[in-house]
Structure formats: C-alpha cells, structure tokens
Amino acid sequence: MATIVCAMLTSLDGYIAGSSGDIDLPFPEEELHRHFTDEMRRTSIALCGRKMYESMRFWDSPEREIAADEVERDFARAWRETPKVVFSTTLQEVGPDARLVKGDVEAVARSLKADTDGEISVSGADLAGQLARAGLIDEYRLYMHPVVLGGGKPRSGLSLALKPLGTKRLAQGVTLLRYAPAAASSD
User: 163 vs 4, 90, 124, 167, CA distance in Å?
Assistant: First the structure.
C-alpha cells in the first residue's frame, strides 16, 4: 500500500500563489532543485490537478533536454519518467506517461493507494483539499520559503489537526515542515 504525500511550496504568510495567481515564490537554485528531483524520483505516481499539471507540462518540452542547466535536465527526466494521473473535467487529453481521469477522485485515489507501493504525490491545492477531506493524505510536506506575499491564494480552506513528523532546513532559507494527520498517526 502506498503513502499519499501532499507537498506544497508556500510563503511564510501561508500563500501558494500571489495576488495575480502566479507562483511568486523564488525559483529553486541548484541544491534545492536537486532535493525536488530526488522527491520526484521517489514518486511512484503523481496525482495532479489540472492547473498544476498544466504548469508542470513545461518540463515535457523538448527544450528541457537541451537546457544549459544539468539540474533542470535531470528534473525534466524525472518528471517525464513518473507516471501521472491528471484529474480534470475540462481537459480532453494529457501528455506522455499521463492518464486523464474525469470521474470520482476519491475512488481512483483509494484504488491507486491500495494497488501501488511507495509514495504517491499530490499536486494542486484543490485536488489536495478533496483528498484531505476524504482522509487519504498520509503526510503533508510544507516547503516554507522566506518570503511574505501579503495576499493571494491560501494553502487551503480546510481545518486539520496534524502531528509534527519533523523539520529540515534546506537551501535558499527554505524550511521543510512534515506533518501527518493527527488521527492517522500513532504515538
């Protein structure tokens, strides 16, 4: 059985995007980018909401293979090699190594969790909210950037009791905060 992990980059004041809707957080430099590449390589399946999937399609571009930066080429390979399930009612097709699902998010996630080993990542605030309400997320990883956006899209409107799993300092002043749902954790 897989562990479903929700990872989100966030500002210190709790926003995942700025007022314009753009992700106004600093782009990862080499060391932090390598961390995210390692996370992607550990991912058995990536569950993506439409908006996040469309943003990440940048990494499918053939130009990523000839990017000057090896760390970007490495992440692009990891992204393309990871199977993806994209939840959308508006998309008509998805790219390579991706499957489009228009149906019951909860049922599909439960089935994937039962039939998969390793980690399943969740990307996209709306999708994460649906899975959190269904009690399907096993771990939350919040990447707190030392930036205050002052407004924008919050992490979620969901109230959860969480148990700390650990904290780690990363490059660029980013702090990784790991949590599990309090009801699912054991002492």
Answer: 16, 36, 22, 12
C-alpha to C-alpha distance for 52 and 178, rounded to whole angstroms: 21
For tokens 């009612």, the residue is: 89
pLDDT digits (tens, 9 = 90+) for 116-139: 999 999 998 889 999 999 999 999
- Per the CB < 8 A criterion, the answer to whether 139 and 3 are in contact is yes
More confident residue, 184 or 169: 169
Which tokens in the block code for residue 89? 């009612």
Identify the helix (H) or strand (E) that includes residue 5: strand 3-11
Q: Which residues contact 68 (CB under 8 A, 6 or more apart)?
A: none
Bridge pairing between strands 162-169 and 119-123: unpaired
54 pLDDT band, cuts 50/70/90, is very high
pTM above 0.85, yes or no: yes
Domains and CATH numbers, the chain: 3-181 (3.40.430.10)
Average pLDDT, the chain: 88
